[in-house]
Amino acid sequence: MSTIAAHLDDVLSRISRATADAGRPAGSVRLLAVSKTFGAQAVRDALAAGQRAFGENYVQEALDKIATLKGETLGGQPLEWHFIGPLQSNKTRAVAEHFDWVHSVDRLKIAQRLSAQRPTDMPPLQVCLQVNISGEASKSGVTPEEVPAVARAIAALPNLTLRGLMAIPEPEDDPARQRAPFRAVRELFDALRADGLALDTLSMGMSADLEAAVAEGATMVRIGTAIFGTRDYGSRA
Ligand SMILES: *Cc1c(COP(=O)(O)O)cnc(C)c1O
């Protein structure tokens, strides 16, 4: 078994245990493998171990990897690419043309551009609205107060499907204190659904806090380090 396959196994066990501990149905949490800074071979190793959905943060690095891996499949299905990094206006076209999902939609203007630039012969782009749950001006995402209006506006755009919310809380080592921000995002999500939006995705939880996120209702966890190892940003082209 490759190291990546063994790590994937460990992460899937963590997810299963956290899902069961929360009294949630088995299989209700999807794993997104965050492959940023790692090469195409790392993605192939994960694919060979049964992982089909990959998350990327940097547009050019991702486009190179997507091109290299074009045609590779798992059980006859193509790889699924999720953009999860900060997205500037001048990069929306490449993302709209090459990704299946965007988790990091952090303002209406970005969603409008993605919708306008999504090729009409492709399925709608699946998107999440990123919420700034830590309340820092430096963080991406709309404020909790802005979420309902922005979510409604995005849900009305033609070439996107709004799937839910995404958040990246401040790192917090104490597991007992990791849950509060995730709970706040889930409450926003529940309120949107109660208000009639058909959402099914809560993208939250990373290597260090996936258990807390699953306990609070995450449906997709984004895991990099625990699968691929420590990132070396210095080697990134
Ligand atoms: C890098 C990254 C991750 C993965 O983080 P790990 O701690 O390595 O699991 C998840 N989400 C986003 C938005 C990221 O940028």
UniProtKB/TrEMBL annotation:
The keyword Transport does not apply. Keywords: Pyridoxal phosphate. Residues 25-231 form the Alanine racemase N-terminal domain. InterPro entries: Ala_racemase_N (IPR001608), PLP-binding_barrel (IPR029066), PyrdxlP_homeostasis (IPR011078). It comes from the Bacteria. The modification N6-(pyridoxal phosphate)lysine is found at residue 36. GO terms for molecular function: pyridoxal phosphate binding. Its cofactor is pyridoxal 5'-phosphate. Belongs to the pyridoxal phosphate-binding protein YggS/PROSC family. Pyridoxal 5'-phosphate (PLP)-binding protein, which is involved in PLP homeostasis. This is Pyridoxal phosphate homeostasis protein. It comes from Pandoraea captiosa. The lineage of its organism: Bacteria, Pseudomonadati, Pseudomonadota, Betaproteobacteria, Burkholderiales.
